[in-house]
Amino acid sequence: MTFHDRADAGRVLAQRLRHLKGRDVVVLGLPRGGVPVAVEIAAALSAPLDVIVVRKLAHPLQPELAIGALGEGGARVLNPEVLRAERIGADELACIQRDAQTELDRQVARLRHGRLAVRLAGRVAVIVDDGVATGSTAQAACLIARAQGAAHVVLAVPVASSRALAGLAGVADEVVCVDTPEWFYAVGEWYDDFTPTTDEEVLMLLDRAAAREFHDHRPHPKRRFLGSSTASIRLSL
Q1: For the segment 31-78, what is each residue's pLDDT rounded down to a tens digit?
Q2: What is the β-pairing status of strands 66-71 and 76-78?
Q3: Cβ burial, residue 219 (10 Å; 0-12/13-18/19+)
Q4: What DSSP designation does 3 have?
Q5: Which residues, at least 6 apart from 68, have a Cβ–Cβ distance to it below 8 Å?
Q6: Which of 174, 222, 215 is nearest to 50 (CA)?
Q7: How confident is the model at residue 136 (pLDDT cuts 50, 70, 90)?
Q8: Most CB contacts within 10 A, which of 27, 86, 184, 206?
Q9: Alpha helices in the chain (DSSP H)
Q10: Cis ω before 218 (30° cut-off from 0)
Q11: Where does residue 14 rank: exposed (0-12), middle (13-18), buried (19+ CB within 10 A)?
């Protein structure tokens, strides 16, 4: 099936997530395109909305090969098998991580503007994107959410490659997808309107969601500063 736009996809996807209503849920949109989808899900579940900012640690000579990922607050996941196979030592890894951290910090600064992150520890983290083609970013996001203490990780997407989705089953407790077309080339082909989402739109949507939470008179979501302490786990990417 095709979706009119990301908001339409979010409303359809929200129907598949109704079983989470009433649980201690945080909805996390992957910037940028996942956020308009996540807005609709957060509203349907009466849950707080946030972004999950991740940066893949890419092999220096094979950018498509992930050796790990970084998240906010020093969260890090590594793929020890790739590190061994590619003979990437501590010094080279530190250099790769330093460059990735710089880009991560820039993206966080653009998207947060001093906003605190919603606490994930012990909660259900619903990670949302507008679609999955290769799965590397979604996979990294699931692992980072786990490293930040999420008790249950749900990956929710409107459309995905069946091959990529199969690879994500091992990093999420639950994978929810509306459609897995037999022939899949790109996420955008399943949307009538796939206009790129801007940082400004992400900020606007986060502000609107925060205002909705306030006017709903629900308890303010527990937020925390993401400091510099490192939470590092070694899992397969």
Answers
A1: 999 999 999 999 999 999 999 998 888 888 887 677 888 888 787 888
A2: antiparallel
A3: exposed
A4: B
A5: 56, 57, 76, 77, 78, 79, 83, 97, 237
A6: 222
A7: confident
A8: 27
A9: 6-15, 34-45, 80-85, 90-112, 136-147, 162-168, 199-215
A10: no
A11: buried
Q: What whole-number distance in Å separates Cα of residue 67 and Cα of residue 55?
A: 11
How high is the mean pLDDT of the chain? Answer: 87
Q: How many CB atoms lie within 10 A of CB 46?
A: 13
Q: Are 92 and 141 in contact (CB under 8 A)?
A: no
Instruction: Map out the domains of the chain with their CATH numbers.
Output: 6-215 (3.40.50.2020)
Q: Which two tokens stand for residue 132?
A: 């999955």
What token pair was written down for 166?
């199969």
CA distance 109 to 14: 29
* Dihedral in degrees, nearest 10, Cα atoms 143, 53, 5, 125: 40
Helices (H) and strands (E) in the chain, counts: 7, 11
Q: Which residue has the tokens 């890090």?
A: 76
Strand partners, 233: 77
Q: How many CB atoms lie within 10 A of CB 12?
A: 17
List Cβ<8 Å contacts ≥24 apart for 218-225.
218/46, 221/26, 221/48, 221/118, 221/119, 222/118, 222/119, 223/116, 223/117, 223/118, 223/119, 224/116, 224/117, 224/119, 225/116, 225/117
